[in-house]
Specification:
Helices cover 35% and strands 25% of the residues. It has one domain: Glutaredoxin (3-Layer(aba) Sandwich). It is built from 3 helices and 4 strands, in the order βααβββα. Strand 3 and strand 4 form a beta hairpin. Bound molecules: FE2/S2 (inorganic) cluster. FE2/S2 (inorganic) cluster binds next to helix 1. It comes from Sedimentibacter acidaminivorans.
Length: 81
């Protein structure tokens, strides 16, 4: 099971963490990945200037609602296959 932690701290919230979470949820459901990827909300990950911060495999990535799907495909899914 791969785990994604999406920051919902104030800076990330303002930059659209809710939308990032919704995009992740939709992509995961649409592609039958609910048994492979779990998403969690996290408090400030210390990278506020790069919001929205997403933690995956002990690294912090900067993800926007517009890049959420690309992030899943290029960074996360390559760890499943
Ligand atoms: S509020 Fe998201 S990294 Fe600080």
């Amino acid at each position: 099971m791969l785990e994604l932690s999406i920051c919902v701290g104030s800076a990330c919230h303002l930059k659209g963490s809710y939308d990032v979470i919704e995009k992740f949820k939709k992509y995961i459901n649409d592609n039958n990945l609910t048994n492979s990827i779990i998403i969690k909300a996290a408090f400030c990950l210390g990278h506020c200037t790069e919001a929205v911060s997403v933690k995956f495999n002990n690294k912090i990535y900067s993800v926007e609602p517009e890049t959420a799907e690309i992030f899943l495909e290029e960074i996360v899914l390559t760890n499943i296959i």
